[in-house]
Amino acid sequence: MKFPNAQDIASTNVVYTYMQDTIEYAIEKMLEGEHRDIIVIDGENYYVLTAMEVLKLKEDHIKLSDQISHLNLRKIPAVVKETNVLNLLKYLDELSEYICVVNDDKTIYGIITHTDITSNIDPEVILDNYTIEDFLKLSRRVRWINKEVKTLDVLTHMHTSGNDSVIVVEDQTPIGILTTKDVVQLIKHQSDLTLPIKEYMNSPVDVVYKRTSVREALEFVKKKHYKRLIVVDEHDKLVGIISQKELILLTYNRWSLVMKEHQAELQEINTLLIEQNREYELMASLDSLTGLYNRHKFKQLYNSSLETMLQRLEVLSLIILDIDHFKKVNDTYGHIAGDEVLKTVAQILQDETRRIDMICRWGGEEFVVLLPTVSLEQAGQIAEKLRVKIAQTSIEQVGDISASFGVCEVKERKRLEEVIAKADELLYKAKKSGRNRVELCEGRGY
Question: Cα torsion at 13, 19, 25, 28 (round to 10°)?
Fold first, then answer.
């Protein structure tokens, strides 16, 4: 079994235009084939014009009669057609899903997408006893919305967040999906974007169950030509999304086990996969919305910091904070607005603390800050500074926000659960006393 070259899996049916052409001409070609993207050639460089960028033209005051060169397009990588598919793995983290395949004279030969790679993988080499559930920890956080949200707001969210799709969820059950391919149709038909997303979403949603085998998942992707798998549990409740890229990497990992006779190729793929696994390890330690540490990683950091503190006879303080009236924000303005509040508070915490401090999104609207070598009094001052900074912050659509704080100092060996429980008591006291305030642990140390 040999790994194919780029020319073996590339699609030669490429829709493209040139940088000196008009934007209007590019859109016409895009709509003719109902493509969501079109390749733009500029000498030996290749770019992609997306449907989302077309939607932004009016906002950026760009005319359809202008040349494509007026746009700030995303450059895509180009490889010669003899390139081994192993050497394409490094491009899977590119923002664009495309890899341009060129002839020796640099003319365009074809295009490779994640779909092309997936479609050329033989599922016979995949372990049947590996299920989607085993790899959900690697999946991206799914972005879901309510069916009544205005379509224009959804498109704006897709553009600013970089998500190529949104899932419409009702009672935790996926009822619809909108992708960038659908955006092309909205443009083509000049749809009314003030209508709720339920008017344009694709429904019902094709899903796979979390106990689906990787073999079945690959066959499903090949049959449906999907870029992603929407995964549900046995009660049809949404549990996550698995991308094509994750399926590809999983498959190549399996290939590496069955190709021992190809030592040179095996060494090459192992190196690539080690690099990719490091990235996934980082992904698994972070909250996907805020970029802060998640609870699992924070527990590890607390334990190691506690040991260092005990060895050096130093102190350690912990702050827990909760955004006031956050449920009301979600209920009134929706989860997109709620996400903006969470990201804003997370940024404040990062800006106003030291590099050695460890910040975690503990869950929901709760955050925890671990402060090595900081006493209770100093931690109280830091918490007050954070409280004031948050209270001075106003968020578009939501308005002013505030948070309540509980602060503890750790001077002896304590489990994180014990410290969090004590800090939670203080947080509750702050909430009960009127919110937007800081409560410190009585006495020195806990």
Answer: 40
Burial status of residue 310 (CB atoms within 10 A of its CB: 0-12, 13-18, 19 or more): middle
Which domain CATH number covers 422?
3.30.70.270
For the entire predicted model, the pTM comes to 0.44
Coil/strand/helix, residue 117 = helix
Nearest-angstrom CA–CA distance, 427 and 320: 7
pLDDT digits (tens, 9 = 90+) for 10-42: 888 888 999 999 999 998 888 887 787 889 999
* Structure confidence by residue, pLDDT tens digits, 384-430: 999 999 999 999 889 999 999 999 999 888 899 999 999 999 999 99
State the CB neighbour count (10 A cutoff) for residue 333.
16
The strand pair at 16-18 and 37-42 is best described as parallel
Backbone angles phi, psi at 324, to 5 degrees: -70, 140
**Identity (one letter) of the amino acid at 264?**
A
C-alpha span between 26 and 15 (Å, rounded): 10
Domain region containing 280: 123-284
* Catalytic residue, candidates 365, 366, 409, 439: 365
Quick one: pLDDT at residue 375?
93
The answer to the question of residue 175 being in a domain is yes
Per-residue pLDDT band at 159 (split at 50, 70, 90)? confident
Rounded Cα distance, 146 and 143, in Å: 11
Helices and strands (H, E) in the chain, number of each type? 14, 20
The answer on 279 and 134 residing in a single domain is yes
Q: Catalytic: 439?
A: no
- pLDDT tens digits for 209-218? 988 887 788 8
Do residue 330 and residue 231 come from a single domain?
Answer: no
Assign 3-state DSSP to the chain and report helix, strand, coil percentages, each to 5: 45, 25, 35
445 found inside a domain: no
